[in-house]
């Protein structure tokens, strides 16, 4: 039995495996510029975030119907459950679909069909976080929030993703204020490729409660001190960082130093179909590469539930945390 954990940094579009991409392409009459899954997999060589995003957005062309989004989410939840995920807070990118003529209702209702069955079918509780694309305008983000209003009961919060450098958090001040006024929780990608200043801004201007990645926080001791003091969770994605060349090799990943500094670190998969592993694979990889102790693995699992947006159901959080404390290492 794998270590129970929550996954808090997962783009549902990034769980699109090549086999499903081709199956959906055939069903929807979409032509992909790759002969087969093998040729597609060869394209999974990234030099930075943008080189990945180009392929990520290209493959989304196959996602067209509610059923497509349902099958995508169901496939993720099955794989996640097999790796010990008990709770998942799932990002989606509505603007990338709206731009292709796929409405936000199709996306949310399709995902919801899988999420509504997830506890029963996979033993995984779920929530949705709607992300704004930071390389699009703030007006577009505001229009997206407006379009999401009929579905707000399905969404726990908002996030910010896509190309980071040159698109600082401050650009989205108004839309985050509007989201907060609607009762939505706030997170943002910051410090993946961008500087520590973007993490400060995400905290001070956007009011985020968790920082997605936050990898570059360690460059700024004052920032680390604040993140520790305020117990701001960081959703790290180690295999993603290697694949997108944010770190050279996993052995040089700052996770162990971040834990030692007292940061509330979690480990997540980001876009597992593209980065060579789901969340359990990320746990195993950091344990091997960084020589983490078993009790540090338990800390990562505990942190994931402490950082989850479960304030409406503390009883559930308590059950998950009790599972983590009772977990016996050895079986995998
Ligand atoms: N970073 C930024 N945007 C993204 C990512 C990521 O790792 N994955 C999907 N959108
Ligand atoms: Zn991400």
TrEMBL record:
GO terms, molecular function: adenine deaminase activity; zinc ion binding
Q: Where is the Adenosine deaminase domain?
A: 4-317
Matches recorded under InterPro entries? A_deaminase_dom, ADE, Ado/ade_deaminase, Metal_Hydrolase
Enzymatic reactions: adenine + H2O + H(+) = hypoxanthine + NH4(+)
User: Quick one: which residues bind substrate?
Assistant: 271
What does the record note about the cofactor?
Binds 1 zinc ion per subunit.
Q: What class of enzyme is it?
A: hydrolase
Q: Does the keyword Metal-binding apply?
A: yes
Instruction: Site Important for catalytic activity: give positions.
Output: 213
Q: What is its EC number?
A: 3.5.4.2
**Keyword tags:** Hydrolase, Metal-binding, Nucleotide metabolism, Zinc
- Top-rank lineage group of the source organism: Bacteria
Presence of the UniProt keyword Zinc in the record: yes
GO terms (BP aspect)? adenine catabolic process; hypoxanthine salvage; nucleotide metabolic process
The UniProt entry's GO CC annotations, sorted and at most eight, read: cytosol
Q: Which residues bind Zn(2+)?
A: 9, 11, 189, 270
- Residues of the active site are 192 (proton donor)
> Which HAMAP family does this chain map to?
Adenine_deaminase
Family to which this protein belongs: Belongs to the metallo-dependent hydrolases superfamily. Adenosine and AMP deaminases family. Adenine deaminase type 2 subfamily.
Q: What's its job?
A: Catalyzes the hydrolytic deamination of adenine to hypoxanthine. Plays an important role in the purine salvage pathway and in nitrogen catabolism.
Q: What name has this protein been given in UniProt? A: Adenine deaminase
